[in-house]
UniProtKB/TrEMBL annotation:
It comes from Conoideocrella luteorostrata. It comes from the Eukaryota. This is T-complex protein 1 subunit eta. SUPFAM superfamilies: GroEL apical domain-like, GroEL equatorial domain-like. Keywords: ATP-binding, Chaperone, Nucleotide-binding. Belongs to the TCP-1 chaperonin family.
Length: 130
């Protein structure tokens, strides 16, 4: 309920009487859809939206838990990147940059049989485990 109030700009009222126009929220489109065996309310084009909700579905509960953990990790990485504005390359990024530089060097400077040896070295950089 709190997320709907925040997204639409509505105000929670303790009773149904005395509801004024300023208590009402706004959304561009509202719909109810069935996803799997459950029904969900979808609020779209809300002017005050700062969040979104992902609906995960799958066969096994362990699979959904793993997807949820992966999504959380990805969201936290983006959040930290936005906050810190400093990113350290990882996941084999340096090896790929070196591979690119070696390939460029071979293309421009090596025209003999050494090219095969240097290409083999460059290819080995692609398979270095991260």
């Amino acid at each position: 309920m709190a997320r709907v109030v925040e997204a639409t700009g509505a105000v929670i009222q303790p009773t149904c009487s005395d509801i004024l126009p300023e208590h009402l929220g706004v959304c561009g489109k509202f719909g109810e859809r069935q996803v799997g065996g459950e029904r969900f309310n979808f609020f779209t084009d809300c002017p005050a939206t700062k969040t979104c909700t992902l609906v995960l579905g799958g066969g096994a509960e362990q699979l959904i838990a793993e997807v949820e953990r992966s999504l959380h990790d990805a969201i936290m990485i983006v959040k930290r990147a936005i906050q810190n504005r400093t990113i350290v390359a990882g996941g084999g990024a340096y090896e790929i940059v070196v591979l690119s530089c070696v390939d460029r060097f071979i293309h421009h400077h090596v025209r003999d049989k050494r090219q095969t040896i240097i290409k083999s070295f460059a290819k080995a950089l692609e398979v270095i485990p991260c």
